[in-house]
Each structure stands twice: as C-alpha cells, then as structure tokens.
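User: I'll paste a sequence; please echo it back and then give the predicted structure.

Assistant: Echoing your sequence first, then the prediction.
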Amino acid sequence: MTGLQRPTEVALDADLIEEARTLGIDLSDAAAAGIARAVAGKKAQQRFAEEYADVIRSNNEYVAKHGLPLRKYRSF
C-alpha cells in the first residue's frame, strides 16, 4: 500500500454506522481494515487456484468420469 488516502463514498446500513459510532469505532479505519482482509483473502484464493490448478482439474475430471467417491454415504 502507498498510504495515500482517497475519499470514497460507500453505502452502509444506518443502524450499523450508528452502533459503530456509539462504540467509538473509527469508520474509516474499520473499513480500511476490512477491505485489506478481503484483498488478502482474495489474493490467497487466487494463489491457491493457480498453484493447484492441475490437481483441481484432475479431481474435476475424475468426478465427471466416476462420480463422487463416497456418494453412497451421503445423507441428502
């Protein structure tokens, strides 16, 4: 991150905003922290998908050809 801040308009639930303010939560800091977690999580998902693309593809091909390995034990 560059540390530069830019004003951004975000629509949030009014009751949630009021509760956060009552509790002394800085909305900008909380939003930035939440977005940072979401970005980190999405990057981790993308890395996993790239790193294990061959395994995922192989498993999907197996299931397409043979079905789910333990399907007879499913209760739904």
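The chain has a mean pLDDT of 94. Residues 42-67 form one domain.
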